[in-house]
Design a protein that fits this description.
ribosome biogenesis, single chain, cytoplasm, KH_dom-like_a/b, 127 residues, alpha+beta, RbfA, Ribosome-binding factor A, three-stranded mixed beta sheet, 60% helix, elongated, 3 strands
Length: 127
């Protein structure tokens, strides 16, 4: 239980710092304002860290952001090592997370269905 709490704190700290680095320090034009860090999963040995990012835009923009993040991995890791006091700074692996866009699309579909059922029940009452 103690180790799980420790990993949660480490993940939260890494998420906060990587988000700040992406927002303010990274000068790559491919990584835009619409890029946000959703979640961080660090292995217990602190060797690797998966950083899940969300990018709003089309597929071409998403691929550009992922290439920009891959190119800037060393820079981000170096800044992370300066800011977070860990014995080993984990190797960052950026993963694209489409869950936000998926939830927005599902919400729109549910709204359309509910409007459609409301219209069909409204028509039945008028007859």
């Amino acid at each position: 239980m103690k180790n799980n709490n420790r990993m949660t704190r480490i993940n939260d700290e890494i998420l906060k710092e990587v988000a700040q680095i992406l927002r303010g320090e990274l000068k790559d034009p491919r990584v835009g304002v619409m890029t946000s860090v959703l979640r961080v999963d660090t292995t217990p040995d602190l060797k690797y860290c998966k950083v899940y990012v969300s990018v709003l835009g089309n597929d071409e923009e998403k691929q550009g952001v992922m290439k920009g993040l891959k190119n800037a991995t060393g820079f981000i890791r170096r800044l992370l090592a300066q800011r977070v006091n860990l014995r080993n700074t984990p190797e960052l692996i950026f993963k694209l997370d489409d869950s936000v866009e998926y939830s927005i699309r599902m919400s729109k579909l549910i709204d359309e269905i509910s409007k459609g059922s409301a219209n069909s029940t409204g028509d039945d009452e008028n007859e």
